[in-house]
Design a protein that fits this description.
Elements (H helix, E strand, L loop, with lengths): L7 H25 L5 E2 L7 E2 L2 H32 L5
Antiparallel strand pairs: 1-2
């Protein structure tokens, strides 16, 4: 069973899982190396960036990207099938 036979949602879900795992590993390596991961705005105390913060944001933006791609696929496929427009 090749990649072409795999449902599209499984491939995209696998990419989300890989992105989450990569960010988790990057966070763990950084904190194990003694890096203080903090974010702050001027005039406010810095806030620690936790593993949960990293994972939630990665999942959130991965799913938003997935949704944007799904919308573009719906728009672009019918137009691509129609062929180029003549002027």
């Amino acid at each position: 069973m090749g990649a072409a036979a795999r449902p599209l949602w499984r491939s995209r879900a696998a990419v989300v899982v890989i992105a989450v795992a990569a960010d988790a590993i990057a966070w763990m390596v950084a904190t194990a190396g003694g890096v203080d991961l903090e974010v702050g705005l001027p005039g406010q105390a810095p806030r620690e960036v936790t593993l949960v913060n990293v994972l939630v944001m990665t999942v959130l933006f991965s799913v938003l990207g997935w949704a944007a791609r799904a919308v573009l696929d719906r728009i672009a496929k019918p137009r691509a099938a129609a062929g180029p427009r003549s002027r």
